[in-house]
Amino acid sequence: MSKLGSKAEHWDHVAREWTLKGYSNELLAEHKKKTYLSLITRWADVANARNILKTDLFQEASGRDQFLFDLGQVNSNVIGIDVSHEIVGRAKSRANAYGVDASKYLCCDVRHLPFRDNSISLIISDSTLDHFPSDSDIVIALKELGRALRPGGILILTLDNSSNPTYPPYIIFRLWMRLGLSPYFIGRTLSLKKLTQNLEEIGFDVADCTAIFHYPHPDGLVRGLERSLRKLSRGRLDNAIRKALALLDKLEGKRTRYLTGRYIAVKAVKRQAEPC
User: Fold this and answer.
1) Strands 149-160 and 263-270
2) Fewest C-beta atoms under 10 Å: which of 141, 173, 198, 262?
3) What are the angstrom distances between the C-alpha of 106 and each of 53, 84, 109, 118, 125?
4) Quick check: is 75 in a domain?
């Protein structure tokens, strides 16, 4: 079986199990959606982008933290991709329920995009590339995104933040996956310095960077805490949890943000072609 086929089957299985096991955390999902929408609107002009590409559809298939449908209500020329047929199908069904056009949701690998060179205006890659088994896979995907993005186009990308002190050594992730403690494959990531270097070598200028979601790894602990608090308080602590998450967001403005953020985030602009 090819690596692509194996990867697609893995995410098909994850999508089915995710729905069955009910991993949804309403308040964390609400917070995640707001954070991403805030970051995107801060770094890009969504309404006037000629077209927008999102590099996976997992949240749109099964999560309350989806934000692509919201972007689709502002700009109808939205493309979504995912390696899993199961995820693409579920995302299309949910998009239709939201009244959003999902005709451009496609099944493909981000390392092999079915788009012409210089054809996409805005790319949003939200913790997609940190599900690959090697750094080289991440770089291949970055190069492919750079190929498809038009000169002057914007890439907004997030990856797991390995500078957070709670981010475990990768051998721990391997153990979690072997013991079945992770519901999906946890891949490699790049440090902010290495990500910036790779983007610049590919032909991007990094215009801005930050760290988002200021809570510790693994997020299973945070998910469990939210579920427990909501169950014990029967919803009476919901507003307090929202305020706590909003308060943690203020850490983004601190010099220590790369120690507290769960993800690094970059805004990279593709350079204009050099004149002949």
Assistant:
1) antiparallel
2) 198
3) 11, 9, 10, 19, 15
4) yes
Strand partners for 263: 160, 212
Looking at residue 9, what DSSP letter applies? H
Q: Are 164 and 267 in contact (CB under 8 A)?
A: no
- Give residue 276's pLDDT: 55
Query: Within the chain, what is the greatest distance between any pair of CA atoms?
Result: 67
Confidence of residue 2 (pLDDT cuts 50, 70, 90): very low
The CATH number of residue 158's host domain is 3.40.50.150
251: buried, middle or exposed (CB in 10 Å: 19+, 13-18, 0-12)? middle
Which residues span the domain enclosing 210?
Answer: 3-270
Compute the distance between CA of residue 130 and CA of residue 158 in angstroms, rounded to an integer.
9
**Domain membership flag for residue 74:** yes
Beta bridge partners of 272: none
Sign of CA pseudo-dihedral 182, 180, 164, 135: negative
Sign of the dihedral through C-alpha 229, 166, 175, 29: positive
Average pLDDT score over the chain: 93
Q: How many residues does the chain have?
A: 276
Determine, yes or no, domain membership for 19. yes
Q: Name the most confidently modeled range: 3-7, 27-31, 52-56.
A: 52-56
Please state, in angstroms and rounded to a whole number, the distance separating the CA atoms of residues 220 and 72: 30
> What is the tens place of the pLDDT at every residue in 213-242?
999 887 778 888 888 888 889 889 999 999
- Total domains present in the chain: 1
